[in-house]
Amino acid sequence: MDALRRTARTAPRLAAVFAALGGLALAASVVPNAAATSGTAPSCEVTDQINQWAGGFTSTVTITNNGPAVTSWTVRWTFGGSQHVTSAWSAEVTQTGTAVTATNEPYNGAVPTGGTVSFGFQATYTGANDAPVDFAVNGQPCNGGTTPTTTTTTTTPAGSGCVSTTAIRCDGFEDQTGSVPSGRWSTVTPNCSGAGTATVATTTAHTGTHSLQVNGADGYCNHVFVDDTADQPAASPTWYVRFWIRHTTPLPTGHVTFLAMNDSTAGNTDLRLGGQNGALMWNRQSDDATLPDQSPAGVAQSVQLPVNAWTCVEFSVSGADGQIHTWVNGSAVPGLTEDGVPTPNVDDQWLGRTWRPKLTDLKLGWESYGGGGSDGLWFDDVALGTSRLGCG
Fold first, then answer.
1. What is the pLDDT averaged over residues 190-196?
2. What is the pLDDT of residue 215?
3. Which of 192, 211, 246, 368 is deepest in the core (most CB within 10 A)?
4. Could you state, in order of their start, the residue ranges of all structural domains in the chain?
5. What is the pTM of this model?
6. Exposure pattern of 361-375 as b/e (b: 16+ CB <10 Å)?
7. At CA 347, angle to CA 343 and CA 350, rounded to 5?
8. Class for domain 170-385, per CATH?
9. Are the C-beta atoms of 13 and 146 separated by less than 8 Å?
């Protein structure tokens, strides 16, 4: 899917003020517009990339710093219509009337010379989704205070899987412009790279036109994942995740994984969601505990993952008490639930030690252990929040 891009350029007066403040955030000072008088190149560029559907849109804002390094930033703009921000990620975003302010998170305030930083938000609108009439970075108007340029707009269908008012982040991969996952997503091979591949697909999607396609090959050295590390801290201490998955081969008898999250409290090992004995299973890499137990009675309390059909998978993981809840197509799965009450054949292994995870990333892909087999998978409409997100 093409995306709406709006670009504004900030005058080089930023450079002088940044230098005077020793690289700290700008105060609301009146500074001459050097670009307007000298014709020199701008010291800052802001790109607003929009994925829009009927009644809503997501926006990814990227700041490029062409001036001196800064340690914090504030971006302000004014909506030209009825837009209302409902959620945001990688920035604290507030709105008063049509005026919007985004400030950096503690982990992404520093931007070196030539560096970039991105944040995003989701919003609703009625009527026309008019472009912002201004952009300002650290108090300085972008492009000399003129209206940013607007290019072609395309829309995603109404009912997009990323329409959510509670998500910190919802990604349908619609902003991906090439076949190699980019932006928030990076391809990783935790152990060794081989035949496994991960690409952005435009032939199969749950909503819109894009999805993440993984060709999962058999064998330990063929692990491949696409990793996002940006938003997990914002959802702490209880992470709610929702994603849609489609695959071509039934889950095998051997152990496989298609989702993993790094746990910094367990030696940076992974909490893994995948399958074994033909059914969905959680696996804690640090001690190889499974949820449910892999006895016949335990496996019977999990569910299979349908093939050649999109399936909605939701789960929550609590860093406060270690509880896990899992839903498939909106229904709770008893075998994938650890609710603090011991359940025979389900959490006997899981409750073998006290576990309080701190998750730091989200990886989608494929791992196969001991002849677990290969699979072809697609992921779409991946969302992270602080409460249950649902499949709607």
1. 79
2. 95
3. 211
4. 4-158, 170-385
5. 0.63
6. bbbbbbbbbeebbbb
7. 150
8. mainly beta
9. no
